[in-house]
Design brief:
Serine Threonine Protein Phosphatase 5, Tetratricopeptide repeat, single chain, 440 residues, 4-stranded mixed sheet, 14 helices, globular, 12 strands
C-alpha cells in the first residue's frame, strides 16, 4: 500500500493534492490552479479556495524541506543528513565542512535551516485556514490530520538533526515570535501534534492514522519509550508506504538533482572507518550506478535509488513499524531475541535476495545489527543522523565510535560535530542567541 503527497510550486501552473487510494478527497487527475502560492496572504486565504491554495503551498514547503530542490538553489534534509553522516561524500568544493563534521553556519548547505521555518509555519497556517473555511466532512478531517502529521514531522526531524535550543516560530502573522526548544522539547511537541492528527482523522481513515502512528512512534523512540512506540504500530501493514512526491519541473527530488544529474555528492563506503559498507555489501536495498567524475573531478558514484527528478521519497513506512517493534523487543527487561529477529526478518522477506538473519550472539552485536538494518532500509531518507545520535544518547556509544573519524580524505581530519546548526541568517532573530549546546 503506497500513498503519496504530490507536491509542487504552482507559480508555473502546476499544482498538487494528497493522493490516497482509499480517499475521495482528490485524485491524481485533479489540478488546483493557483497563482504564486508562496505569496498567499492571510486575506487571500480567507475563503475555501484560498484555504485549498494555502494547503497546496504547505505541502510543497514540506516536500522542499524533506527531500526537495528548487532549480538547483538548495537541498533538503536528506542531503544534509547524508553528508554529515556516513551515507554520502562530497564531490563539490566548499561543502567539505559538512562532510568532515565541521559545520559552518555561513556556508551551503547549512541554508537548509531556512526551509524548517517555512514548512512549519505554512503547515500551521494551512490548518487554521482549512479549519475556518473548508466545508465540514471527511475530506476536511483527512486534510487537516495529514497537515498536522507533517507539522509534527518537522519537529521530529528538527529534533533529530539540529542542535539543542533552536527557534521555533508560532506562525502568528500579526506578531510573530519564536521559542527556543531543546531536542527533547521538540520530540514532546511532536507527540502532542501527532495526537492532534489522530483526533482529527476519522476512525476509518487508515492512511492518516498509520501516518500519525508511525510518526508518533518515531518520536517516542527518540524519547527512549520503545514499548509505547511499538504498541502504536502493531497494526500498521508492512507494505504501508507514505511517500513525498516530487516534480520534474519544480520541486525535484534533491538526491536525483545533486547526486545523479550533477554528481555534486556521491555514495561512500566505510567512510571515516566507522561508516557502513554501503557499496561493498552488495545489498539490494542500496542501489548505485557507475563511477564518473564529480564536480571537483574526483571519482564519484551516484545512487540509483531515486532515478528520476520526480522519484518519490518515503516518509513513513510499515518497514519502519517493524524496526520499531524489533527495537522494543531488544530493550525489554529480558530481551526477546526471537521476536527481535522475527520483526527484522518480516521486513527482509519483502525484498528478494535478502536472507533471514540469525542471532549475532551478544547485546552489542544485536544493537549493531538493528542499526545496520535501519541504515540500509532508510538510506537517503533523513533517518541516519537521528539514529547515530541515539546510539550515543541512548546506547552509550562514544561519538568517535559512531561517526566518521580520523583523517579526512580531502585533507585534515574529521571534526567533532554530531548535529547541524541554524544558518547564520537566524542570528537576525532577536529570540535566538545560538545553540544551547551541540550534544547528541
Amino acid at each position: 500500500m503506497s500513498y503519496t503527497i504530490l507536491s509542487a510550486r504552482v507559480g508555473r501552473g502546476l499544482s498538487a493534492c494528497i493522493a490516497a487510494l482509499s480517499l475521495a478527497a482528490c485524485s491524481r487527475q485533479e489540478l488546483l490552479e493557483v497563482n504564486t502560492p508562496d505569496q498567499i496572504t492571510p486575506e487571500a486565504a480567507a475563503s475555501p479556495s484560498g484555504a485549498a491554495a494555502l494547503r497546496v503551498s504547505a505541502l510543497g514547503n514540506f516536500a522542499y524541506l524533506y527531500s526537495g530542490d528548487n532549480a538547483g538553489s538548495g537541498v533538503g534534509l536528506n542531503i544534509a543528513v547524508g553528508l554529515l553522516t556516513d551515507e554520502m561524500t562530497t564531490s563539490r568544493g566548499g561543502t567539505e565542512h559538512m562532510d568532515s563534521r565541521a559545520v559552518n553556519e555561513n556556508t551551503f548547505p547549512s541554508t537548509v535551516w531556512t526551509l524548517v521555518g517555512q514548512a512549519q509555519t505554512q503547515l500551521i497556517r494551512a490548518q487554521k485556514s482549512l479549519e475556518k473555511y473548508a466545508a465540514a466532512g471527511a475530506t476536511k478531517q483527512t486534510q487537516i490530520s495529514q497537515l498536522q502529521s507533517l507539522e509534527a514531522f518537522t519537529y521530529v526531524l528538527t529534533g533529530e538533526i539540529f542542535c539543542n535550543g533552536v527557534p521555533i516560530g508560532d506562525a502568528n502573522d500579526a506578531e510573530p515570535k519564536s521559542v527556543n526548544m531543546t531536542n527533547a522539547q521538540l520530540f514532546a511537541k511532536a507527540v502532542t501534534t501527532f495526537d492532534a492528527a489522530l483526533t482529527s482523522a476519522t476512525t476509518t481513515d487508515a492512511v492518516s492514522r498509520n501516518l500519525a502512528y508511525i510518526g508518533k512512534a518515531r518520536a517516542l523512540v527518540d524519547q527512549k519509550q520503545y514499548s509505547a512506540a511499538a504498541a502504536l504500530v502493531t497494526a500498521v501493514p508492512t507494505d504501508f508506504v507514505y511517500n513525498i512526491q516530487h516534480s520534474r519541473t519544480t520541486i525535484v527530488n534533491d538526491v536525483y538533482d545533486w547526486m545523479v544529474a550533477t554528481r555534486n555528492f556521491g555514495v561512500v563506503d566505510r567512510e571515516g572507518g566507522n561508516g557502513l559498507n554501503y557499496l561493498s555489501a552488495n545489498d539490494p536495498r542500496i542501489k548505485f550506478g557507475t563511477t564518473a567524475p564529480g564536480q571537483d573531478g574526483s571519482p564519484t558514484i551516484s545512487p540509483t535509488k531515486f532515478p528520476q527528478p520526480d522519484s518519490p521519497v518515503p516518509l513513513a513506512t510499515g518497514i519502519e513499524a517493524r524496526m520499531i517493534e524489533a527495537e522494543a523487543a531488544l530493550n525489554l527487561p529480558t530481551p526477546d531475541i526471537n521476536a527481535f529477529l522475527g520483526y527484522l526478518n518480516a521486513a527482509r522477506a519483502t525484498v528478494a535476495g535478502l536472507d533471514p538473519l540469525t542471532d549475532p550472539g551478544s547485546k552489542t552485536a544485536r544493537e549493531d545489527l538493528l542499526f545496520r538494518e535501519r541504515a540500509f532500509w532508510f538510506w537517503l531518507t533523513a533517518h541516519r543522523l537521528g539514529d547515530m545520535r541515539r546510539l550515543i544518547r541512548q546506547y552509550g556509544r562514544g561519538a568517535e565510535s559512531v561517526f566518521p573519524t580520523g583523517g579526512y580524505h580531502k585533507g585534515g581530519i574529521y571534526g567533532s560535530d554530531v548535529n547541524l546548526i541554524p544558518s547564520s541568517a537566524e542570528r537576525n532573530n532577536p529570540d535566538f542567541k545560538g545553540c544551547a549546546d551541540r550534544n547528541a
